[in-house]
Amino acid sequence: MVSSNKALLSAVALATIILMVMARPSVQASVYITNQLTKKVLIVHCRSKDGDLGAHAVANGSTIHWSFGPNLFGGTLFWCKLAVQNKRISFVAYDDDNVNTVSDWIVLDDGVYGRPYQRPTFLMAAWTRPNISTWISRDQESAFTS
């Protein structure tokens, strides 16, 4: 009897999970990072716990973006490191656990600005000048300092 109750409970739990996955709308989220620096190339390196998007050089006036399906149970998080010449910024680019998450970013000479839902922008992070050797490997250093 106990064995059949456990089997029934397991079957109900599995059916519930399957129904939740099937009922979930196929929502795609996107992140946009636009380089509006004055005549400078921006290096963008973003990642989540599930993967590394790699480093990309983004020309002035250009945008890098990616789309993804957020985790069914929440917790989807992307963070980025930006570099231009000898300045750096690290910030959370997407957090689906935050109801006010911003996924549209503009990079200006004084920092990174968020554009939430076509509202006015706000400064998310200002540029810093960290010790470059703690931020990237030596073989990548030339790309950030040129």
TrEMBL record:
Residues 1-23 form the signal peptide. It comes from the Eukaryota. InterPro entries: Self-incomp_S1. One of its GO terms (biological process) is rejection of self pollen. Its main location: secreted. Keywords: Secreted, Self-incompatibility, Signal. It is found in: Secreted. One of its GO terms (cellular component) is extracellular region. Belongs to the plant self-incompatibility (S1) protein family. PANTHER family: PLANT SELF-INCOMPATIBILITY PROTEIN S1 FAMILY-RELATED, PTHR31232. This is S-protein homolog. It comes from Linum tenue.
